[in-house]
Hints:
Protein name: Membrane protein
Region (Disordered): 1-27, 254-283
Number of helices: 22
Helix content: over 70%
Membrane topology: Multi-pass membrane protein
Transmembrane segments: 36-56, 132-150, 170-188, 195-215, 221-241, 294-313, 340-359, 380-400, 420-438, 445-464, 470-490, 511-529, 535-552
Radius of gyration: 24 Å
Shape: globular
Subcellular location: Cell membrane
Oligomer: single chain
Number of domains: 2
Distance between the termini: 21 Å
Amino acid sequence: MTVTPPRAEHTTATPAPSRSDAPDPGGRTTFVSRGFLARAAFVTVVLSLAGAVLGLGRDQALAHLFGAGRETDAFLVAWTVPEFAATLLIEDGLAFALVPAFSAVVARRAHGDTGDPGDPVRALVRGTLPQLVLAFSVASALLVWGAPYLVEVLAPGLPDPRLAIDCTRLTGTCVLTFGLAGYCSAVLRAHRRFVAPAAIYVAYNTALITAMFVLGGRWGVRAAAIGVAVGGALMVVAQLPSVVRQLRRRKAATAPEAAEAAEAATTDTTDTTEALDPGDPAGDPAAGRHAMNLALLLTVLLFALCRQSQVLIERFLASTLPAGAISHLNYAQKVAQMPMVLALMLCTVTFPVVSQALAEGDTERARDRVERDLRAVSCVVLLGTAAVVACAPQLVHVLFQRGAFTAQDTAATAAVMRVYALGLLGHALVGALVRSYFSAGRPTWYPVAAMTAGIVATACLGAWTVGSWGVLGIAAANAAGITLTALILLHGMGTRGVPIRTRSLLAAMGRPLRAAVAACGAGAFAASLVDSPALGLTVGGTAVTVLFLLLAGTPGGQGLTPALRTVTRRLPHARFR
């Protein structure tokens, strides 16, 4: 997620001590030890990875039960709704608007400045939740009512849209449940409670998998859509007890908690908007909803929407191809994106360091951190790309070829995966670079313009190649479009983002790029020597990893270890429940 602290002129808290064990006036430590923070972060990462693994299991269940035909294509058209809802309501937009406001009133509560309305946190809930619930409910109702029109726009080439319409009506409820889940996540993150928000995708994907196996025999692929509806509700249920505990708190916090909350209001790691000043003499907790930098929020939302529209273009074009094309694209992307997801975890962890450096005017430190992160991300992604391209047939066979997913589906999905993987470096660089553009807490339209250029290129190339290359043309257009966006973002970093040394960075990325090409060839050759797909995947993956590390060095040496060391020094105290 893109994260940015409020601008320096809006901060009121005293700067945090540089030592992780510095005492506060009350005699207790304001910051946790590195070991505790590492253990707490480990728990959060484990839950996030568990959700990702269950997401892969969800795709395996979908392939096993329904294969890659008309039914799966129809569900994946309806699946567009929860994909967009998750991006805007859980992962990006809603958090950008709510976390700063809640961080501010949590700081006011911690200082004992409850003001006339009583508890400021509950006052802010009363001032925002009813309106948002109404908005989410109306949006869900409109999606249910307008499902036929939405399916016609998203996939006009579907031979029988009725199944897609039924699935869309079921998944349309996720706007309400995802919105409430995102609201709960914002409340908990502002209170420095991270485990429950990290666990929501475990609950969500568990519900999807269970629904497909329990109801699939009777309801077909509609069972997956039912799973989306139930899983969205479980996202809320998983967080509700923790939210209720925080809202029931009445007394002012102790001195360490006050310092922690004040730090949260000024350097919160999950917002991109300006926080309400805890010392605002107006003392109106509900005013937090008016303290948002709307221009910044608008640019972030437009960027997220623009990037997510790649999925719309791909499914729109694939709907004109034979049945199964949308499914092959979906399976290929979900697996190929795993290296990118793992690589971007580094940027998520180190982003507060960049934000704090810019807020303090230390451009040199911010530049050094961004350059290290980009080198580490490129190493991880290039290693993953080499493995995916080299062992795609074996990987797809091991993961999906069972039940209704045939050998022909394996061959088609593996071919798409290899082409799509050519854009993984571009996808990872875009995800890493856009954080730097928004790190200064100012609205900037450059990332939106760069993403728009990439989307236009994807649409034009896809429309041009889909007739002759089919689904491979769509995957190639995706890779070309996102690579163009990454190059535009790199070009603008010097004047609009963190001023990195682009030429030296590209030169440093040349070595792992050459290593990836060599490792890919060796891995593909090694995998082809073995008949067993599982053994071939093991042999090929091992060959890719060993040769890449020999030629390029370890990704951790490029910046992963220093990044984690910096984070344990800088991040404020957090509780994990």
